[in-house]
User: Fold this.
Amino acid sequence: MTDTIQHGKYVELKYRVVDAKTGNVLTAVDFPLGYVHGVNDVLSSQVMAELEGKAVGETLSVELDCKTLFGPRDESLVVTDLVENVPEEYREVGTSILMENDRGEAKTFLVTRVDEKTLTIDGNNPLCGRDVVFELEVLTVRDPTEAEVAAGGKVEKPPMLTGVKPVPL
Assistant:
C-alpha cells in the first residue's frame, strides 16, 4: 500500500516558485524539504491543502495570488540610502537585514539594489504583488520517527568526528 500525504505523515519534497507572467524561476529548493504534515506546515495553507492525498513521485502545480497572500506592496517599506551609511557586510544584493523599529518590532528587509552611491532595501515579501506557481515534487511519504514529530520535520544528524582527540584546557 502506498502512503499518501495526510495529517501526521513525514513528507519530503522539492519545489520551485515560478513567476506566472514571465515564467522565470524565482526560488528553487533542490534539496529535500522535510516536515510532518499538519504539524509543521512549512508552505502556505493553499499549497499544503493541495498536497493532501499525494504520493511519492507525484508532481503538482499550485497557482497562488500573492497579492491576496501577502497583501499589496507597501512602497513605504522601500528605502534608499547613501551606500556609505550602510555597513559593508550589507552591501550585496540579496542580503537579509533584520531591523527593529522604535517599538521593538522586528522586520526583515532585503537588499534589492546597490550602485556606487546608493543602496536600496525592501521590507515587502519578495513574492508580494506577483502571481506565482509552486511546482512541487513529492519525494518521500512515510510515518515519522518520534524525533521528527518532536522537531516538526527533518532531524539533521551531527557529523561524525573520527580520529579527533580532546584538547586539554
Confidence is low (pLDDT under 50) at residues 158-169. The CA atoms of residues 113 and 120 lie 5 Å apart. The beta strands are 10-19, 25-36, 59-65, 78-82, 96-100, 106-114, 118-122, 131-142.
